[in-house]
Amino acid sequence: MGGEGTTTQGGAVPTPEELERLAAAAESAIAAVADRAGWESLRVEWAGARQGRLRDLQALIRLAPDKRAFGQAFNQLKSRVEAALARRDEELADGERAARLAAAREDVTLPGRRPATGSLHPVTHVARQIEEIFRGLGYSVAEGPEVEDDRTNFALLNFPDDHPARDAQDTLMLADGRLLRTHTSPVQIRTMLARQPPIRVICPGRVFRNDNDLRHSPMFHQVEGLCVAEGITVGDLKGTLLAFVQRLFAADTRIRLRPSFFPFTEPSCEVDISCQLCGGSGCPTCSLTGWMEILGAGMVDPRVLANCGIDPDRYSGFAFGLGLDRVAMNNWGIPNIRSLFESDERLLRQVRG
Ligand code: DAH
Q: Are 304 and 255 members of one domain?
């Protein structure tokens, strides 16, 4: 045999037996590799695309004395190395997946985390109840601005020039002469200035007064009601209020109207309901009277109708106003009005449901 079979530029041409041994050695090296990095360096060593031992060996075939035997042995080697790499790759991947799962293990016996759910504020709750009741009586909801002028908050409502409510003592004035509305009654005015009867609206909203103690907050809530049409009487007022309180409070609630005074109604009254605690027999909550005062009302003063461009000879109406905070405090037994506005979650949790 000439030198051709044993020496090449690249080194000796291995015999088929040597290729066989090489395959066995490669298999056990690949099987023994401990991690991904080790596997990768063996893969590059053997099967690298540019230079790898398989590629280099394959190139030697043209120098082999028995090309057929070399080719067969080389193909064996190649498929054994590739199979060993694939097998170890899969085993490593299994281990990696198991490690990932173990790291992310959840304790399924732990109690679930409840998402925090909100609840309606007691005042919002009462406002919505009242809106629902009056929608059922054919009323719609109107709103107005919280910053008003003297004309809409007082003058057109027939407040005399020297009325104490117009004083900065009682009303929160802005530097430009406007004011924070002291009641929801200016929304009556805005409604009547905007359209002609028949009118049936309720107007819930925030109001402001220079007042601050256990029962009074500088900001509180009212609902105004207004009904103007031909032939409206005190009977309509009384019937409407009775239907209203019997839906908002107990179904057997009674009312009584006591004469009173408001500049924008004539006649005017305070409306009491039978005490919701004792039913009218007298208890500490109603100061032993059997009655609880809940709203102010009256027949819209003809001058107020005229101020708004509504003919008082043709139309009449009634109006009423009540404090929402008082109703909420009553319903949930909240003694201090400020508890309503401190945003303490414990209060909201107590009124939930
Ligand atoms: N505006 C009154 C207040 O703030 C409440 C009120 C009383 C409104 C009688 C009315 C009414 O519409 O007729 O005290």
A: yes
